[in-house]
Design goal:
Chain A: This is Cytochrome c-type biogenesis protein CcmH. Chain A: InterPro entries: C-type_cytochrome_biogenesis, Cyt_c_biogenesis_CcmI, TPR-like_helical_dom_sf, TPR_CcmH_CycH. Chain A: Keywords: Cytochrome c-type biogenesis, Membrane, Repeat, TPR repeat, Transmembrane, Transmembrane helix. The structure holds 2 protein chains of 2 kinds. Among the domains of chain A are: 34-76; 141-187, no CATH class. Chain A contains 18 helices and no strands. Chain A has helices at 2-22, 33-53, 59-82, 89-115, 125-130, 138-151, 156-168, 172-186, 190-203, 210-222, 227-239, 243-256, 264-273, 288-295, 299-319, 324-336, 340-353, 358-371. In chain A, helix 1 (2-22) runs antiparallel to helix 4 (89-115) and helix 7 (156-168) runs antiparallel to helix 8 (172-186). Chain B folds into 4 domains: 1-165, Four Helix Bundle (Hemerythrin (Met), subunit A) (Up-down Bundle), CATH 1.20.120; 199-320 and 343-404, no CATH class; 406-513, no CATH class; 518-616. Chain B is globular. The longest helix of chain B is centred in the middle third of the chain and has 33 residues, at 347-379. Chain B has 21 helices and 9 strands. Helix content of chain B is 63%, strand content 11%. The interface between A and B is large, with 77 and 89 residues.
Chain lengths: 375, 665
Amino acid sequence: MLLWIAFSLMTGAAILAVLWPLRTGAAAPAASTAEADLAVYRDQLAEIERDRAAGLIAPAEGEAARTEVARRILRATAERASEGEASGEGRRRRVVAVVALLGVPLLAGGLYLSLGSPLYPPQPLAQRLEAQPNPSDIAILIRKVESHLEANPNDGRGYEVVAPIYARIGRLDDAARAWANAIRLLGPNAQRETGLGEALTAQAGGVVTAEAKAAFEAALAADPQDPKAQYFLGLAAEQDGQKEQAAARWSALVAQSPPDAPWLGLLREALARVGAPVPVAAGPGPGAADMAAAESLTPEQREAMVRGMVERLEARLAQQGDDIEGWLRLMRAWTVLGQQDKAKTAAGQARTHFASDTAALGRIDALARELGLES
Amino acid sequence: MNPEIGHYALVLSLAVAILMTAIPIWGARTGDAALMRVGSTLALVLAGFVGLSFATLVVAYVQSDFSVLNVVENSHSAKPLLYRITGTWGNHEGSMLLWVLVLAIFAALVALFGGNLPARLKANVLGVQGAVAVAFLLFILLTSNPFIRVVPPPAEGQDLNPILQDIGLAIHPPLLYLGYVGFSITFAFAVAALIEGRIDAAWARWVRPWALTAWAFLTLGIAMGSYWAYYELGWGGWWFWDPVENASLMPWFAGTALIHSAVVMEKRDALKVWTVLLAILAFSLSLLGTFLVRSGVLTSVHAFATDPSRGVFILAILVFFIGGSLALYALRAPMLRQGGLFAPVSREGALVLNNLLLTAAAAAVLVGTLYPLALEAYNGAKITVGPPYFNLTVGALMLPVAFAMPFGPLLAWKRGDLAGAAQRLMAAFGAAIVIAALAAYAQGGGPLLAPFGMGLAAFVVIGAVAEVTERAGFGRVPRATAFARLRGLPRSVFGAALAHAGVGVCLFGIIAETSWNAERITGVKVGGRFEVGGYELTLDRLEPRNGPNYRDLAGVFTIRRGGVDIGTIESSKRLFTARNMPTTESGIRTFGFSQLYVSLGDELPGGGVGVRAYWKPYVTLIWIGSIIMALGGALSLSDRRLRVGAPKPAKKPKPAAEPKVVAAE
């Protein structure tokens, strides 16, 4: 609000700068060109006089200079006589006033609204550092921890706090280094080792490197049940071409996991990839836990997770096909994942289920058209 | 302070500048006094808004407000306060804002102190100045906006180019801009005169203070830039004929010509067409310099960012203002009435010679700067026009300028007596020969240039003194009378003499440094010693030191001359961590007017460190001479004649109190 008041005052000042000199009664006669010239020439004459009196110029020289200046004075005097007064002032001044009154706010306001960010407050660094911890200002949170760690380089808790944040904003180098420091100072545990392994894997573009693998193995040594470590070790086996070993790890993990574990979809997808039997899903759509888990995954992992969820939906619909919303969601999901064929199949299946329901058929056809599944 | 206030102030400045272009010029065309007056208030308001905008940006830098993109890209919270402030204009966007700020300040100064100007001329001047402001404000807002914000704000900035983290950034650009942009006012006067189609001796008097101001600042700006490059780049050179340096030198030559031709115009009503052209050229060359520096055509420490759209925009501004003003010139110049006549040998003639040589020098620099660019644009060939070309052409043109300089002021207006002037310079000439002989003896062989150049420099300095004593009549009239006359001399005479002496001092420094400097490039271990220019240097220790945003390796040397310990000198290599960029902090010790210069190189594999050491005799005279020149300009500016000449418009009748006066008027 204060900002808008300031803008208005500034705009007002600009307009006033035009209106003030225009007000009636302010018109002191302006210096005419000829008068200004005359003032200079008179001064030049006086100067010549002074120089001559002081003996700085010869009398003859001075006389010649005087004559020249005198000629200029005569010319300027003649010009003064011919200078006329302006007319039609009232209309002109009204035009100028209207242009200023409308033009300044329109131009300045319009341009500013397209260029400026009026709702964004200033962010002086000192203020940000002093303010209460603000979860939306991640940069400052990290900076605070960093400056704390610079002063206390042996505070393992600090590294442990900042490492996942680094991972989340994509500073993978820093994340890996922070996890390593946390392990060095606090000793290994499953969470720290998997954190390190995950950061290293993400850094390598999804490849479980030897270093990452060592970290996951250390995690399993600390907690043999750790699901993340098991999953990634399976992935490592798959990437090494040992599909059976991978399948064995993942199947074991499925067996040990609770039925609503968020990683089950991912596992099912992974198992399908290596050609192992996929256990049937139990849970419905993605829960809050799934979404939270999806936040912390790499793009590949996230896509795999989404795929798992879609497959779960498909399996459910194959058993209970009277859920029109479910079918529509499935069509859309396959399209988003780039599986046009599966989407078309889903549309066909849905049409057979709702052959007698014209309203539902209309919706299916409309969506198929929208998604470009007509052929 | 909210950066948005600055952003809005900048946008509002554009609106104000548009009005400032249109209203006063319309008023001048229709003879409407009120409309013409609007120009003055608008000029003040414009300076206020641009100033507010600039101040807001400075505050954002000081407070490290990283929600402003420009601050993120060019600042760092660990930087000392001074460099956080100077960082504001140590980048493209901020420096353009400073450019416009100086432009607006000059317009405001005309509004405030232009009371002696005829209303019509003043209105047109402010209108033209407004038009330049419109162009550059549009440029800033559309291509180089310093107020763009970032969401979310990062916690730290990317730091400023380390070479710019120096006190030099606080001094050099503002001075240079005061000079560069100061010529916008003389340009505005020239275009205003052409619009009116009317120009006379009085015009020259009104223009002269502005030309002098701009010239003095430009002189200082160039000199400070030269000194900065000298100590910061670590190469020991003080002038590189870098295109960016040339870009500032060209308007300086044109401006120097302008302040001299304006004298002729004021005194004799002659050279009008030429003076107007020079006023246009000086600013056109400033604009060209801005284009070369800002467009990314050149890559140098000055090219903060390269962005083709900016280059095209500035080129368009360049074409509009230079082309427009020259077209107007071609249209109107033939209509201007020619003034007084003069013989070739006369004060006027001498000043014409000065003008010819100076503009030829500007042209030589222009060709040398643009030719490689044009060739590259034409067939992609990359050539460099190097110091030999510039030294030869500019040097060859400046030697006659220096030689003729003492003669000019001794010649009379209209028709001068060359033999008489030469006779009066005999003493100076004799002294010059003595100095040349001394120089030849001191160097004992070696380049002929040194004794000749030093004799010439002495001739210029003593000639400048001779001018003043000659005018006062020492030796011709009784001493008391001469002193009385000396006191009566206008300050502009002292100013001119001082500036001319400054040229001589500067020339002396240039000749001495180039002829007699000594250089030593060597590797040295701790405890090792080497010799340069008669001084023995011993590397005492290498020690690491850390600053707020850099790491430093300093080498400390002991200086001995003839076995006597005369102090230490330090040079260091700095690594700025945020940009991972090294700089050299050269060590300089001044002895008299000469300097010992040490610059630390890289660490050598076998331990020890590379060192470049120079002995630079009389090198400081180069910059001292430049400062003397600028002081001469300032002294000339303080001449009362440049302040008087205010017209006394018919007083508004005071109500009631003096009815008789009203009747009389």
